[in-house]
């Protein structure tokens, strides 16, 4: 019979209490494999203690079973410890891998954030837009790098303060900006203000400040954009618009635009004024505009516009309009065709000018022309009288004077003969003056029939006519001229004859005249003459002599009518010869001028266009 030791059951009681009350709490705190295997070790441990209590002697069946089960109860937690260690290592590896992934993600986020910051900095630099932040609690500012540049600071290291921010704002705008910021803080809303800043170097800039109040962090966050160029462009555009509006008003010139996709016509203010309406007082489209046109001109305007639209071309048309008051005005419209950049549409940009005064001036000009034609006929009649009726008494005065001198010279004393000589000289001067005036009149009135003129042949003939004077004065003429121009040969011959005659007349005493005649062909752009056509070819003829010359201060006056630099006692002449040259050269759309050194000689320059039709 087995003897039971009651004291051996006490460990079972403690084991039961451990398993029932403390082991669940242990498992709630630790969830590893060790905890689970520890639970499994309770059963063999419990049985081992039970068999040990039932054992009566060493190494009996209960004793052996108890030690075997106790061994198992030791092995199971040990396996749990090993498995828990393996699980812990695996968890650490998983944790390290997870941390590595998180680090990579954070690095990617940091790189992306850096790229975004660079992108933001570039965007701020391109748009001249700086950002700032004001902490209301600490009253501290933060500026972006671009804001330092906008405010004119090259040092980005210093910490901006409220005083520095106040200093940057132009004095006249401080009250406005502070009010906007205060309202944003009090009302917890956004703000926007346009104002000027004053950089440390004294330069003023226009900026646009915008921002909002961030309530959670009690901050004002905003941006400042440099709008100086935009503001200056806006002011310039506004000034140009004002100038254009005033220019249109002064010149009675209105502008308009019509788009093919819209029946409405946009008018400038002057367009309304031209048509007798207050600006923007009526709606204008193609149909209503026809009602503004004088009835007899409507079909012509409609035809011109329809043809232009069909051919997609520009057009110009003149017509009359009727104002609401019934007044009729003349206008001229020029329109330019323009294709739209998007789609197949097109538009017309036009300009309409009130030419009523011009029409009235043209009418008066025609009347003046008619009066001038009548006057010219009177002048022609006077020229006829001067050439016939006035010359006839002069011829008789000279003839009878010559008879007095020849037939009664012996019976007339010296004083009487002097009177007769003076009378003959005066009659001769009168005859020369009439002849020169008639020549000047012909130069102004002759019809302009231009033909090719060989300059070398022409001047050679002129020199042949002056052959006696050249020989008598022992003069030397060097002719080196080529080419031809379009002109009136007799008139050009008179120009060269007058100038060459002057060179032979105004010679220095005891110095044989030397005259050089040369020519060259040049473009108008090379001439220092503002009236010359830039792309027109000109022939420049230069006539240089070694005569007495003249004071160059008179170079512009010698071509005036009746202008003389010497008395009649010194040199004969009427002072009309060079005026005739000037008139003829003007008729040929050319230029004439002279250069001289008194006592050394003169140079005359005659500049004639090669092709006259290129100018006229």
User: How would you classify the helix and strand content by structural class?
Assistant: alpha+beta
- Under CATH, the topology of the largest domain is which? Heat Shock Protein 90
Task: Compute the number of strand runs.
Answer: 17
Compute the number of structural domains. Answer: 4
Taking pLDDT < 50 over at least 5 consecutive residues as the criterion, the unreliable ranges are: 561-571
Termini distance? 158 Å
Describe the main β-sheet briefly. 5 strands, antiparallel
Strand order of the largest sheet: 2-1-5-4-3
Mean pLDDT across all amino acids: 79
CATH superfamily heading of the largest domain: Histidine kinase-like ATPase, C-terminal domain
The DSSP helix count reads 17
What is the approximate shape? Answer: elongated
From the alpha carbons, calculate the radius of gyration and give it in angstroms.
58 Å
Kindly list the characteristics that best describe this protein.
51% helix; Beta-Lactamase; 17 helices; 5-stranded antiparallel sheet; 17 strands; single chain; alpha+beta; 616 residues
Write the SSE topology.
Layout: H1 10-29, H2 33-54, H3 61-127, E1 129-135, E2 140-143, H4 145-150, H5 162-168, H6 174-187, E3 190-198, E4 204-214, E5 219-226, H7 228-251, E6 253-259, E7 265-267, H8 269-274, H9 286-290, H10 298-311, E8 315-322, E9 328-339, E10 346-354, H11 356-389, H12 391-407, H13 414-445, E11 451-454, H14 455-465, H15 467-472, E12 476-480, E13 484-487, H16 489-505, E14 514-523, E15 537-545, H17 577-587, E16 591-597, E17 601-609
Parallel strand pairs: 12-14
Antiparallel strand pairs: 1-2, 1-5, 3-4, 4-5, 6-7, 6-10, 8-9, 9-10, 11-13, 14-15, 15-17, 16-17
């Amino acid at each position: 019979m087995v003897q039971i030791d009651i004291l051996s059951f006490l460990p079972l009681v403690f084991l039961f209490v451990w398993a029932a009350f403390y082991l669940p709490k242990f498992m709630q705190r630790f969830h590893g494999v060790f905890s689970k295997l520890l639970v499994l070790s309770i059963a063999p441990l419990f049985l081992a203690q039970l068999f040990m209590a039932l054992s009566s002697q060493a190494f009996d069946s209960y004793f052996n079973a108890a030690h075997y089960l106790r061994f198992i109860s030791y092995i199971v937690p040990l396996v749990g410890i090993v498995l828990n260690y393996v699980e812990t290592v695996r968890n650490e590896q998983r944790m390290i891998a997870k941390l590595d992934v998180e680090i990579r993600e954070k690095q990617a986020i940091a790189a992306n954030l850096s790229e975004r910051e660079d992108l933001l900095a570039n965007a701020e630099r391109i748009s001249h837009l700086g950002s700032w932040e004001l902490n209301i609690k600490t009253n501290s500012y933060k500026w972006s790098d671009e804001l330092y540049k906008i405010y004119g600071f090259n040092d980005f290291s210093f910490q901006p303060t409220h005083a520095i921010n106040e200093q940057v704002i132009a004095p006249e705008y401080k009250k406005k900006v502070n009010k906007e910021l205060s309202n944003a803080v009090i009302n917890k809303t956004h703000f926007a203000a346009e104002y000027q800043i004053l950089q440390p170097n004294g330069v003023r800039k226009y900026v646009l400040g915008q921002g909002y109040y961030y309530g959670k962090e009690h901050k004002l966050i905003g941006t400042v954009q440099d709008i100086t160029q935009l503001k200056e462009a806006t002011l310039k555009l506004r000034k140009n618009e004002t100038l254009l509006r005033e220019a249109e008003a002064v010149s009675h010139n209105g502008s308009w635009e019509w788009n093919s996709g819209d029946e409405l016509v946009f008018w400038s203010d002057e367009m309304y004024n031209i048509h007798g309406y207050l600006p923007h007082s009526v709606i204008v489209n193609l149909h209503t505009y026809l009602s503004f046109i004088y009835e007899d001109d409507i079909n012509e305007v409609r035809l011109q516009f329809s043809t232009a639209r069909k051919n997609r071309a520009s057009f110009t048309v003149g017509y009359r309009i009727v104002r609401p008051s019934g007044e009729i005005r003349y206008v001229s419209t020029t329109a330019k065709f323009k294709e739209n950049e998007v789609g197949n549409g097109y538009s017309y940009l036009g300009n309409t000018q009130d030419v009523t005064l011009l029409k009235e001036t043209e009418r008066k000009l025609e009347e003046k022309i008619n009066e001038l034609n009548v006057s010219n006929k009177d002048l022609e009649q006077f020229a006829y009288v001067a050439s016939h009726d006035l010359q006839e008494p002069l011829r008789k005065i000279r003839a009878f004077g010559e008879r007095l001198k020849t037939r009664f010279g012996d019976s007339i004393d010296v004083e009487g003969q002097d009177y007769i000589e003076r009378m003959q000289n005066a009659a001769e001067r009168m005859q020369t003056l009439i002849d020169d005036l008639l020549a000047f009149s012909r130069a102004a009135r002759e019809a302009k029939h231009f033909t090719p003129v060989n300059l070398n042949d022409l001047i050679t003939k002129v020199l042949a006519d002056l052959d006696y004077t050249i020989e008598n004065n022992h003069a030397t003429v060097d002719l080196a001229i080529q080419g031809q121009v379009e002109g009136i040969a007799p008139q050009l011959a008179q120009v060269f004859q007058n100038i060459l005659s002057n060179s032979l007349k105004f010679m220095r005493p005891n110095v044989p005249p030397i005259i050089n005649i040369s020519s060259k062909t040049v473009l108008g752009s090379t001439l220092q003459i503002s009236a010359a056509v830039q792309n027109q070819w000109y022939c420049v003829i230069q006539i240089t002599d070694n005569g007495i010359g003249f004071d160059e201060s008179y170079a512009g006056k010698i071509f005036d009518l009746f202008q003389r630099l010497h008395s009649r006692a010194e040199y004969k002449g009427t002072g009309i010869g060079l005026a005739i040259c000037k008139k003829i050269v003007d008729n040929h759309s050319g230029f004439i001028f002279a250069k001289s050194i008194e006592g050394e000689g003169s140079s005359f320059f005659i500049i004639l266009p090669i092709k006259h039709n290129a100018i006229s």
